[in-house]
Amino acid sequence: MAKVLLIEDEENIRKIISYDLRKAGHTIVESGDGQEALDIALKQPFDVLIIDWMLPHVSGIEIVQKLRIQHVDSVMIMLTARDDETDILYAFDQGVDDYVTKPFSPRELLARVNAHMKRQSKRMEKDLEIGELRINLKRREALLKDELLTLTKKEFDLLEYFVSNKNIVLSRDAILNDIWGFDYDGDTRIVDVHVFKLRTKLQGSNVHIKSSRGVGYLLEELHETA
Predict the structure, then answer these.
(1) Looking at the whole model, is its pTM more than 0.90?
(2) Are 19 and 4 contacting, i.e. CB atoms less than 8 angstroms apart?
């Protein structure tokens, strides 16, 4: 079960969420203040953070930014009434893993938490490799020719996803659903932007992200021809 930090300043909403999560066996720490929540998250590890955007003293998006800078790799779910595509894109770019808009279904939120934890447990089982690239899941490190790559959280998640599905053509829609969230309905070009960044960082190696026209992308190992 997950250890969850629930950051929500509306007490009624916080009570509903915490009740369902505790009933499902998760351990919950609650906070209704942005600064307090940030201090808590920096002092102890959590599997999942559920974060309201609008909070006293420090906003939810600032919490995400500050924690990602400190390399906190907990699953972060933004829970907010802000449903504008610009806000959603910005939140994902700052490092959230999922985005839930209010009003919301507590059962759906619980299902998302469980799905993220199931995915996390599977990911930790072993290192991933293709060609000159090796990914250590426990340390969330990617090594290319034994040199550490500098990656944002979303770049790491996307690279891991490609390596886990190497030599398979992955559609943009599939990538969006699995990396940006279950109900992400923004512009698919966000995938293209992140693929471009990964390609740049993989240059000079035998690992390549190939475009499949009109479909998506495929990660493959390049082999020298005689």
Answers:
(1) no
(2) no
Q: Which two tokens stand for residue 39?
A: 């201090």
The pairing of beta strand 48-52 with beta strand 3-7 = parallel
Which tens digits make up the pLDDT trace of 147-162?
999 998 889 999 999 9
- Tell me 177's DSSP state: I
8 A C-beta contact, residue 63 and residue 39:
no
Of the CATH numbers 3.40.1380.10, 3.40.50.2300, 1.20.1250.20, 3.40.50.300, which one belongs to the domain with range 3-122? 3.40.50.2300
The mean per-residue pLDDT over the stretch 70-89 comes to: 89
Question: pLDDT per residue over 25-48, tens digit each?
Answer: 999 999 999 999 999 999 988 999
